[in-house]
Amino acid sequence: PDRTTIMNFRHLLEQHQLARQLFKTINRWLAEAGVMMTQGTLVDATIIEAPSSTKNKQQQRDPEMHQTKKGNQWHFGMKAHIGVDAKSGLTHSLVTTAANEHDLNQLGNLLHGKEQFVSADAGYQGAPQREELAEVDVDWLIAERPGKVKTLKQHPRKNKTAIIIEYMKARIRAKVEHPFRIIKRQFGFVKARYKGLQKNDN
């Protein structure tokens, strides 16, 4: 097919949100086949950069993208939030937002409601206290902040149990990184390819 055919097909997916419907259908098939389990969900988010230059026809950056600071570095773009099946490592939930959206704000949208536990990094500290998550009855396996882990390791014998628990949490949530690696390294989605969140979401 030529470029116009592919573009028209992409527009159909976008206008009718067919990509989302396909995503849900595939997940349902996987669940029915016993591939996708429901006991646990791993959650995380990653920043996808967008062009920050204003050297374009509109002389402005994409208004739906925003900047955020991670560590000591500023990033401009969008953020992909995912919920991953703890057993299979397959993604069952996806939400896209501007990069400045706090990870915690989308946590409720990444859960399917049948989880027994939720695993996340330290950026999700405080999740059990959130009003919108008050009725979520799960075991929260959320990592301690790096500063606290560093303090624990200063007295390894005294804090042996706490340190082991942190290592176990890290091993459980490691699978959540795999979908990001596939998206960015295999599919080349390191940068947003289109303007606007909806186009990139589809």
Automatic annotation (TrEMBL):
Keywords noted in UniProt: DNA recombination, DNA-binding, Transposition
DNA-binding as UniProt keyword: yes
Pfam families hit by this protein: DDE_Tnp_1
GO biological process annotation, one example: DNA transposition
Record's signal peptide: none
Coiled-coil annotated spans: none
Ranges where the Transposase IS4-like domain occurs: 39-200
Domain of life, source organism: Bacteria
InterPro entries linked: Transpos_IS5 (IPR047959), Transposase_11 (IPR002559)
GO MF entries: DNA binding; transposase activity
Family membership: Belongs to the transposase 11 family.
Protein name from the UniProt record: IS5 family transposase
Organism: Aeromonas media
Record lineage: Bacteria, Pseudomonadati, Pseudomonadota, Gammaproteobacteria, Aeromonadales
